[in-house]
Structures are given as C-alpha cells and as structure tokens.
Amino acid sequence: MNEKYTKTSTSSSFIKIKAPEVQEKVTSKLKKTNSNFDNSTTWNSFLTTISILSVLLCFQIVISLNPHSGESQPPMFGDYEAQRHWMEITLNLPIEQWYVNGTLNDLLYWGLDYPPLTAYHHNLLGLIAYKINKSWVELTDSRGFESVAHKMFMRISAIVPFYIFYLPPLIFFYLNSKKTSPMSYALALLYPALLVIDNGHFQYNSISLGMFLATYVFLTNNFTILGSMFFVAALNYKQMELYHALPIFVFILARSINKAQPLNSVFKIAKIGAVVISTFILIWLPFILTGTAKDVLLRVFPFNRGLYEDKVASFWCAFSFILKRLPFQSVQIYLSTALVLLCSLPSLISLFRQPSERNFRLSLVTTSLSFFLFSFHVHEKTILLATIPSLLLISDYPSSVLWLLNISNISIFSLCVKDNFPLSVFLFIGYFLVSYSTFPSSSPLKRLLQIFSVSTGFLICVLELYGPSNQRFPHIYQLANALESFEKVKKE
To answer: Transmembrane ranges (predicted)?
Structure first.
C-alpha cells in the first residue's frame, strides 16, 4: 500500500517537474510556427501586391495612349490644357498675379481655380517642363501646345503621384485589415473610374485623394496631429475635400473628448486647432503677404458658376428639366447647403456617439454622397470623393460597395465619350464581371436586381454611342445616364 502510494507520488512529482519544460517546448514550437506563418503571409501579400501593381501599371499605360480631354479641340481644348496652362502661368508670372485677371493671365482661359497647393505643384511641374523643353510653358505662345513628347511628360506627371500619394495609404489599410482578401484588395487598387479620369481625361486627383487616405490612416492609428496636417494639405490642394471635412471634424472631436479629464480634452482640442490654423497660414502665407488671399478665395469658391457642370449624376442635373422652370435661383446655395446637412446629419450624430473606425468610414461615404448629390457646382469627376472612402468598406459590405463602384464607372461614361475614349466601357464591363463573379450577394434577389440595374446602365452607354440621335433632345442619353445613376446612388 505504501509502495503504491510512493510510486504514484513520484510519478506525480515527475509530471509536475516536467510540465513546465513541455509547456516551454510547445510554446517555442508554436512561436516558430506562427513566425513561419507570418512570414508566409507577408510573402504572399508581397507577391499579391506586386502582381496587382504590375496589372495596374499596364492599365495606366494603355489608358494613357488614348486621347485626353480636349485633344486637338481649339480654342479651349480641355482639362489637359488647363493643367499645362497652370504650369505656364505659375512659372512665368509673380505669385501675386496667379489668381488675378490681367493681360498676361486671362482668367476666362483656364484661370487657376484650385487652392494654393495645386498652384505650387504646377509651379514645380512648370520648372521641370522648362528644363526639358521651354516651348512647353512659354507665356501665351504655348497655348494649346500638343506633342508626343509633351503628352508623355504629362502622362508620367499624373502616374508618378499616384504611386507616391495614393497607393501607400490604401495598401497600408488593406494589408493591416483582418478582413482583407486578395480579390477585395485587387478591386480596391484597380478601381477604373480614378484611372480613367486621371490617366485618360487628365487630372491629378490621386494627390488630394491620397492625402485624404493618409488622413484616415493617421487618425485611426491615433496620430491625430499628423492626420490633421494631411487633411489641411488635401483641402488646400482641392477644395472638394470639404466633402470629407464634417466626418473628420466629428471623429477628431469625439475621440478628443474625455469626460473624466475635461481640462486635458480642452488642451488636446486646442493643440489640434493650433496645428490646423498654423498649417493653413503656412500654405497661404505668400498670398496673405501679397494681399491676394481674397482673389484666391473668389476663384476657389465660384458661386456664380451654377449648381453643376456637364451631365453629372446629381439631383440638380438629373431633375434639371423640372427645376429650371421653378423660380428659386436666388436661394439655390441655401437650399443646396440645407439638403447636404439634412442628409449628412444622421451619420454624423452616430459617429459622434460612437467614433469607431467602421462608423467613421460609413460617415465619410454617406456625407460625401450627400455632397455629391445635393451640393453646389458638382462635376462628374467628384463622384470619386464618395467612391474612394467606399473602397475602405469593400470587405465589410462587398455587394453594396461594388454596386456603387460599378454605377460610378457608368456615371462618368459620358465624359469618356466627350474625350473620344468610348473604349473605356470595356474596362468598366470587365470590372463589373470580375466583381460580381467574386462577391456574390447574400440575397439572390438582391444580386439579380443589382446585376439588372448595372446592365441597364451599360445599355444606356451603348445607346449613347449607337442610339438614334434626337434633334429636339440632343443630350437625352447623357441625361438618362445622369438620372439613372443619381437614382441608384441615392438608394445606395
């Protein structure tokens, strides 16, 4: 009896002694396995990123080979000429004349109408262009200049900032998201509307949108000061970043308030406010010193230019055939502002009460869509301000977000036709087919309705190209596109 007890006791002691050693070995092996898994995941992410970027660059090059806005269409040409002309003006004239009408700066011919950072950027590009070929930016004599070499320079100047400003924060977000799949990652990076507008039509939207994405990344990782500075920079590159201002302000405010430490909250908010004001002053200082800040503001906020431009999928354009008969021209700005705030308020209240990252993303999309649908002087290109934050929600709401992205592609097709780039429709169709074959909707009926609605949009695109012309209503197909796109975006 005693012997049995002794053996059992010894065995128990042996187990007690060995248990920590076994546990240590198992833990060591698990760590090694996890390390290998992490390395494998990183390597797979690296390969996926390289593959996507290779395809992306190929798309950008192919798109760049197509006509740009206003190509060989005097006297005003298009946005391509506007960007070139701003290089010419900022290079050859003193800073106090950049936004002021004069004999050497006719504001009716693509006068600068974006904030100071756009002007500084074009000044830098003008210096580079002058070093390569001074005829590209000669004052007045270079108007409407077009050549193969110059087109290559301009195209490269639009592609490079895409990889410097836009892609890094987007890639960072996706590689640090737990819900990321390779396909959602690819669909976010290969979103066609931005590629077609920047590399086809010709603009530099990737810069301000990239700084906005960097703002989101910094704010959600508690780098509030850096995030605030980046958003001020984005806002001072393109004033349309105001579309994102309300959710960003509410998010910063909600996360800065600590009821347990009110004094610390006040100090934190004051510090952020001081940084924002200082950044604004630094950017605007040359115009403040030369007394032309007011001239810049008058150019940046053109309240005399109407509610929308071209056939854009906004409320004002979609129902222009009715609204133009109503006598409310004098209250357009106030009505527009009221509608934007009314549609934005619910998401902003929700964000303030619960400033989570998901609520932040949702509020950014909701508010920017409200601005796009109801705000003053909307371009068709400004749909990007709603769709770019929605890229951050693909993993959360794949079906709804991809529907919005596909509708946004269709909504800019009239712009592509105007630029003699109707082949863009094949890029849009390809994106649609890949997105809907990859992310099936949870509801078969919802999936069917979404496919039907997008297909209807593509049918209107085909009619715009090949449908019978109507002398009485020459823009009937463009208006149909705007009306249908507005209706779908509103539902989204």
So the answer is: 46-66, 152-175, 181-197, 209-234, 269-289, 333-352, 359-377, 383-405, 417-436, 448-466
